UniProtKB/TrEMBL annotation:
Gene3D superfamilies: NADH Oxidase. It holds the Pfam family Nitroreductase. It comes from Limosilactobacillus mucosae LM1. Its main location: cytoplasm. GO terms for molecular function: oxidoreductase activity. This is Nitroreductase.
Length: 200
């Protein structure tokens, strides 16, 4: 069966060869990212996902912060050189920082004690859904992206550099830009290892 949605999903891949050859203007991309996150679901309609969208020098500054923090923990020069090359490759057209707004999570835990143990996990589901949706939306526009996780190593420095509220918890970083080289082959587990179907 051919499904249009899954055809669109196939466009979303981890693209590491990212460039700055983007035709869309920045405001168009901001509107796209904001609307996509707004349309993403969250438990209890809690809307706990927050984002910082950075372009140009501000985007590059994110990855400079990553390198500065990594340098503090990676003492071997040869190992750091490899890390530096990888991180510098993320200096593309822009970067999205994804956050969970923790004050709302805590308030829901207080308001609904029977479900209190679940709200942190549900917030993770919400941010995962938003990331997936934005990633696909960018792919439909012909843009590449990948999802990185240098948090919590960079949390404090990022918060200071971008005036992030204390209640925003950094969860991931998404560099995006033009696709300078396609993604490699993707291994897929056999269906029998992933799914169980009953009553079919």
């Amino acid at each position: 069966m051919t499904n249009q949605f899954n055809q669109l999903q196939e466009k979303r891949r981890s693209i590491y060869a990212l460039g700055k050859n983007v035709k869309e203007d920045k405001q168009t991309l901001v509107d796209l990212i904001e609307k996509t996150i707004e349309l993403s679901p969250s438990a209890f309609n809690s809307q706990t996902v927050r984002a910082v969208i950075a372009f140009g020098q501000d985007s590059d500054r994110i990855w400079d912060i990553v390198l500065a923090e990594l340098r503090k923990v990676v003492k071997d020069d040869e190992a750091f050189a490899k890390t530096q090359a990888k991180v510098n490759s993320f200096k593309a057209y822009g970067t999205i920082l994804y956050f969970t707004e923790t004050a709302t999570v805590k308030q829901l835990e207080a308001d609904f004690p029977a479900y209190a143990a679940n709200f942190a996990g549900w917030a993770e589901q919400a941010i995962g859904g938003a990331q997936q949706a934005v990633w696909e939306a960018l792919a439909v526009q012909g843009l590449g992206a990948s999802l990185q996780h240098y948090n919590p190593l960079i949390d404090e420095a990022i918060a200071k550099a971008f005036d992030i509220p204390e209640t925003w918890q950094l969860r991931a970083e998404m560099p995006f830009g033009s696709v300078e080289a396609p993604a490699g082959e993707k291994d897929v587990l056999p269906a029998e290892k992933r799914f169980k179907v009953f009553g079919a």
